Amino acid sequence: MHRIALIQTRTPDTQAAALAELEPMVRSAAAGGAKLIATPEGSNLLQRNREKLQATLCGPAEDVAVLGLQALARELGVEILIGSALVRREDGQGANRAFFIRADGKIAATYDKIHMFDVDLPTGETARESQLYTPGEEAQVVDTAMGRLGLTICYDVRFPGLFRALSRAGAEIIAVPAAFTRPTGEAHWEILLRARAIECGCYIIAPAQGGLHADGRGTWGRSTVIGPWGEIVSRLDHDEPGVLFADIDLDASAKARNAIPALKNERAFTGPAL
Predict the structure, then answer these.
(1) List 21, 23, 58, 113, catalytic entry
(2) What would the mean pLDDT of 145-167 be, rounded to a whole number?
(3) Is 35 within a domain?
(4) 113 is an active site residue
(5) Could you report the per-residue pLDDT of 210-235, keeping only the tens digit for each?
(6) Among 79, 154, 200, 202, which one carries the catalytic annotation?
(7) Is residue 236, in this structure, part of any structural domain at all?
């Protein structure tokens, strides 16, 4: 069994304030025995105002939240997945980027969110993530101290092909850090997480943003860990900041995949024509 912890937070609009909110929860998670600690999407800052966001973004090497979490990983001897940090790329464009930090504090892998959240919801809410960030082009699996971890971010959960690819690459755990809107969270959050776990026969770990943020947005919360059979292993039933612990057994992934060998039985096909 491996103990993990998910951090549910309500990220403010500066990196320094975000780190101040994250640090005590990361320390609490480590004190509770977690060896892998995962944070949500946008862990370093959330800011809906485009001009203010552009003025605040910086490269990861200058981002105090990213640097602070690296230092915490090194001090506490734990692995930390920054579900995503909003950072500036070398070309000046924005990136919604996950960072996997080993227990020595070094960044071992990064993943840029592939699917941009460009939507017009029935509630009247709109989002145009592609106006702020350059989408990634490469899926990523990283070896952790407990097993192989596949990286996704939020809206990626609606694209099962990505999850299948990560599973075929050996992922036993797939992370879905998120800042889900409240309407879509209430309607789809748990259903999508359980579906991806069942389809792939793997653990889904989903640390989430929750509540009403300083920039005016509302996020759903309900951080959740789903087992390979689709069962809820652990979850928070609210949108308040907190730490969610879960003990996971990766043998359960192999057992689920042997019972329903969907990955092995999958076949290529053609059509229909568009």
Answers:
(1) 113
(2) 97
(3) yes
(4) yes
(5) 999 988 899 999 999 999 999 999 99
(6) 154
(7) yes
- At 130, the pLDDT band (50, 70, 90 cuts) reads confident
Domain count along the chain: 1
User: Has 154 been annotated as catalytic?
Assistant: yes
Residue 270, domain member (yes or no): no
Domain membership of residue 79 as a residue range = 2-261
String of DSSP letters for the chain: -EEEEEEEB---SSHHHHHHHHHHHHHHHHHTT-SEEE--TT-S-----HHHHHHH---TTT-HHHHHHHHHHHHHT-EEEEEEEEEE-TTS-EEEEEEEE-TTS-EEEEEE--S--EEE-TTS-EEEGGGTBPPP---EEEE-SSSEEEE--GGGGG-HHHHHHHHHTT-SEEE--B--BHHHHHHHHHHHHHHHHHHHTSEEEE-BBEEE-TTS-EEE---EEE-TTS-EEEE-SSSS-EEEEEEE-THHHHHHHHHS-HHHH---------
Residue 274 located in a structural domain: no
Backbone angles phi, psi at 173, to 5 degrees: -135, 140
CATH number for the domain harbouring residue 97: 3.60.110.10
Active-site residue (options: 21, 23, 35, 41)? 41
pTM: 0.96
266 is catalytic: no
